[in-house]
């Protein structure tokens, strides 16, 4: 990947952070940590890897994305808005009555959302079903399934993984966002997941692991997974909850951030200013 593409995708990831933060601050609360941890991943997928037509969200020949960790919906919405699926002004309606941007993704409401998710674990089965349908229709499209590490406490996930591995459905690229925290604390304390890479390999998956903010690494890993022809595939994303902004990375309770005190609001304002400045500077250099 050339340097200009890396910069373009890096800027796209930070636009996801910027618009997510603005949206959640406006609302007063929301799922920031898990949205930030997949910002680079979303940038690589929507900015380079996925076959999509934002002006034609229901294009039959598109790749699909299933955000099984549906609480990261604000990050996905920010990406979809930046790709042109809908106007950015819609982000300010997040979670309001009658909105087309509910707290968790709804495929019947939001242009660009391919699967309704939020009940943790169920997106894995949905993705397996979509992959099966594409295989039966002899389509070469991919389904990108994003799971949370805490979400994998749900047994349904492992049933779906076993199904994908058994039928060698390598058109479903399983991505585990291993950001190491969930709603109530550290994932290792709540339900130790042990080594995701070894577990997925034991389940029959060809598995790679890459840092969550490594744009080149994420892109190269997906390219490698696409080259696997006779085995289910998985990418473990070694990420940080709140990734990309030191204040939110180290904030103890960063799953759903409440903007209810001066310190958090000041940090948010400073982050918004810094991101806007950094994005502008990189875009000017990258023209």
Describe this structure in words.
It is a single chain. This protein is an alpha/beta fold and 287 residues long. It has eleven helices and nine strands. It has a five-stranded parallel sheet, sandwiched between helices. A two-stranded antiparallel sheet has the order 1-9. The chain has a two-stranded antiparallel ribbon with strand order 5-6. Strand 5 (181-182) and strand 6 (185-186) form a beta hairpin. Helix 1 packs across helix 3, helix 3 packs parallel to helix 4 and helix 5 (122-136) packs parallel to helix 6. The longest helix is centred in the first third of the chain and has 25 residues, at 3-27. It starts with a helix and ends with a helix. 49% of the residues are buried. The mean pLDDT is 96.
Q: Characteristics of this structure?
A:
287 residues, five-stranded parallel beta sheet, single chain, 11 helices, 45% helix, 9 strands, alpha/beta
Mean pLDDT: 96
The rounded Rg comes to 18 Å
- Which range does the strand content fall in? 5-15%
For the secondary structure, the number of strands is 9
**SSE ordering:** HEHHEHHEHEEEHHEHEHEH
Number of helices: 11
Structural class given helices, strands, pairing?
A: alpha/beta
Low-confidence stretches: none
Largest sheet: 5 strands, parallel
- Gap from first CA to last CA: 17 Å
* Overall 3D shape: globular
Strand order within the widest beta sheet: 2-3-4-8-7
Please estimate the helix content. 40-55%
Domain Transketolase N-terminal: 12-270
Family: Belongs to the transketolase family.
Keywords: Thiamine pyrophosphate
Organism: Candidatus Enterococcus lowellii
């Amino acid at each position: 990947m050339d340097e200009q593409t890396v910069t373009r995708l890096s800027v796209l990831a930070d636009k996801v952070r910027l618009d997510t933060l603005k949206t959640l601050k406006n609302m007063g609360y929301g799922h920031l940590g898990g949205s930030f941890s997949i910002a680079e991943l979303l940038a690589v997928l929507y900015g380079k890897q996925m076959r999509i037509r934002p002006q034609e969200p229901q294009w039959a020949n598109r790749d699909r994305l299933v955000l099984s960790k549906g609480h990261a919906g604000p990050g996905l919405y920010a990406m979809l808005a930046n790709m042109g699926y809908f106007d950015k002004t819609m982000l300010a309606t997040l979670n309001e009555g009658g909105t087309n941007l509910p707290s968790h993704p709804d495929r019947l409401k939001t242009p660009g959302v391919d699967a309704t998710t939020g009940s943790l674990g169920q997106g894995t089965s949905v993705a397996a079903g979509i992959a099966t349908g594409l295989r039966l229709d002899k389509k070469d499209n991919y389904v990108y399934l994003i799971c949370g590490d805490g979400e994998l406490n749900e047994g349904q996930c492992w049933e779906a993984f076993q199904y994908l591995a058994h039928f060698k459905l390598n058109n479903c690229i399983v991505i585990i966002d291993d950001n190491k925290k969930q709603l109530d604390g550290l994932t290792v304390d709540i339900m130790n997941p042990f080594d995701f890479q070894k577990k997925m390999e034991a389940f029959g998956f060809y598995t790679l692991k890459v840092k969550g903010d490594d744009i080149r690494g994420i892109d190269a890993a997906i390219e490698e997974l696409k080259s696997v022809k006779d085995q289910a595939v998985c990418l473990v994303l070694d990420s940080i909850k709140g990734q990309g902004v030191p204040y939110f990375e180290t904030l103890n309770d960063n799953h759903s951030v409440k903007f209810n005190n001066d310190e958090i609001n000041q940090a948010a304002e400073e982050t918004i200013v810094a991101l806007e400045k950094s994005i502008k500077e990189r875009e000017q250099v990258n023209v």
